[in-house]
Amino acid sequence: KKRYSITLLPGDGIGPEVVSVARNVLKLTGSLEGIEFSFQEMPMGGAALDLVGVPLPDETLSAARQADAVLLGAIGGYKWDNNEKHLKPETGLLQIRAGLNVFANLRPAVVLPQLVDASTLKREVAEGVDIMVVRELTGGIYFGKQRGFGTNEDGHEFGYNTEVYAANEVDRIARVAFETARKRRGKLCSVDKANVLEASMLWRKRVIAMAAEYPDVELSHMYVDNAAMQLVRNPKQFDTIVTNNMFGDILSDEASMITGSIGMLPSASLGASGPGLFEPIHGSAPDIAGQDKANPLATVLSAALLLKYGLGEENAAKRVENAVLNTLNKGFRTGDIYSAGAKLVGCKEMGEEVLKSLDSQVPAA
Ligand code: NAD
Ligand code: IPM
Ligand code: MN
């Protein structure tokens, strides 16, 4: 029997609600596939701040490093919004990404046939969209060392950040993106702001240089403002998108809405070695936390990515994905993806339905 240890980081807000569902899904999937999971729940984010006073305790990071894979819910909430920078839940999130060196964040945005009506775009625009956003995750403006607050000559307070990308940082994310595009439809669009920003100029130069190694991949470049517009004009033009940390953050939230809801989008954060970090792209949704309203499917699908990319358990991953599709085929919807005629359920009930669908193994339509 195969055994894996999984570190769970439920976090804040809806995080614990959606991670609890994903944990049950992993457990049952394991028993159906002959895999045994041991789960270790560790505090991070606001939960860790309340417990031990830091957003990423050393014990949490070392547990994550020793695990075979890490599943995270979400962090953050009003309570900690005015904390100093080093005592923010979000700082803990950046620390664990950096601590695991997971520089490549894959954010697939797929419009499922079952959810076309949940998209805010017209059916003919949304139908068939299948985009992979490859977001650089451990560099750029989030991590620029020159940052802080000050007061200028005129006595005005200011805040500043810097975007820095070294050639090797661009190369390693570009490599992941070209390899990803090659396994998909062979199209890669690099999104930058090379008309204005030096960091983007270097980014574009390095991506172009690497293209010579991938003659089978059709490379294009787009400025981020245009990309934001093109995503809602004609999202089907995109296959794989590679972009920096901040643009990837913004464009993936935008892409999520094409698929119906941010509550559907999973992500996989991978490094050169060591455990991967798997998390939904959404946040802690404080507006619906504790109300059993959250859509757990982004986290369940993140668990599927964990099985696939984190553990190489392709069959188990397929089983989870099929269970999600079957649950949708049966008409179950949380509020965020509800459309007329569907069966409205909460987070828990959606989780129970996914478990039933795992068990029944009805092939997805
Ligand atoms: P958010 O993603 O938490 O919520 C945005 C909107 O989407 C809200 O209306 C929310 O109710 C809805 N939503 C999000 N996930 C949902 C789900 N699974 N099901 C149904 N509806 C869902 O973004 P925000 O409001 O900008 O941020 C809230 C907090 O989360 C902040 O503290 C922020 O820093 C944090 N955050 C954390 C992460 C993370 O942990 N990776 C990601 C984004 C934001
Ligand atoms: C995300 C979030 C985080 C990010 C925040 C909470 C630090 O928005 O995971 O997309 O910007 O990366
Ligand atoms: Mn985000």
Automatic annotation (TrEMBL):
It catalyses: (2R,3S)-3-isopropylmalate + NAD(+) = 4-methyl-2-oxopentanoate + CO2 + NADH. Binds 1 Mg(2+) or Mn(2+) ion per subunit. Its EC number is 1.1.1.85. Pathway: Amino-acid biosynthesis; L-leucine biosynthesis; L-leucine from 3-methyl-2-oxobutanoate: step 3/4. Residues 5-354 form the Isopropylmalate dehydrogenase-like domain. The keyword NAD applies. Keywords: Amino-acid biosynthesis, Branched-chain amino acid biosynthesis, Leucine biosynthesis, Magnesium, Manganese, Metal-binding, NAD, Oxidoreductase. It comes from the Eukaryota. GO terms for biological process: L-leucine biosynthetic process. It holds the Pfam family Iso_dh. InterPro entries: IsoCit/isopropylmalate_DH_CS, IsoPropMal-DH-like_dom, Isopropylmalate_DH. NCBIfam families: leuB (TIGR00169). HAMAP family: LeuB_type1. Homodimer. This is 3-isopropylmalate dehydrogenase. It comes from Turnera subulata.
